[in-house]
Amino acid sequence: MTRDQDTLRMLAEVEAANADLAERAKAPVWYHPALGLLIGALIAVQGQPTPILAAVYAACIAGMVVLVRAYKRHTGLWIGGYRAGRTRWVALGLATLTMIGGVIAVWLLRERGLTAAPLIFGAIVAVIVTIGGFVWEAAFRADLRDGRPL
Predict the structure, then answer these.
(1) Where are the alpha helices (DSSP H) in the chain?
(2) What is the pLDDT of residue 76?
(3) DSSP of 88-118, one letter per residue?
(4) How many CA atoms lie within 13 A of 70 on its CB side?
(5) Mean pLDDT by 10-residue block, N- to C-terminus, for the chain (150 residues)?
(6) At 84, is the secondary structure helix, strand, or coil?
(7) How far apart (Å, rounded) are the C-alpha atoms in residues 19 and 85?
(8) How does DSSP classify residue 2?
(9) What is the pTM for the complete model shown?
């Protein structure tokens, strides 16, 4: 085998490994909707009494821990959402939209007295985060297939 053939074979092996990793990095189908519900709940409970806020916040933290463990168990890896690559822009966009939704919900509640605003914006954010989770995953898998580092 010549050096060129060895090089081509090694490149093919690297590409195959990247494709395998991209396939393995697929979250369970329920993962992104569960994440969306957890984030949406954080907004939906704004304006509730402190004990309810505390209970929901604790449940959301526990839910996040469960999601991370489930993802690690399912895929064998965990990658931060703000990693370099296509995913960073998706994550920043999701964080921005979530923050804007939360601020608007609280403003409408406190300044306009619209008690349903947190529930409505919590539901909207839940949908946005769910869709965004699938978009983030697609971007991550594309980065892996393209050979970008984890």
Answers:
(1) 3-24, 31-44, 50-75, 86-112, 117-145
(2) 86
(3) HHHHHHHHHHHHHHHHHHHHHHHHH--TTHH
(4) 15
(5) 76 72 83 98 96 97 96 88 88 96 97 97 98 94 80
(6) coil
(7) 17
(8) -
(9) 0.87
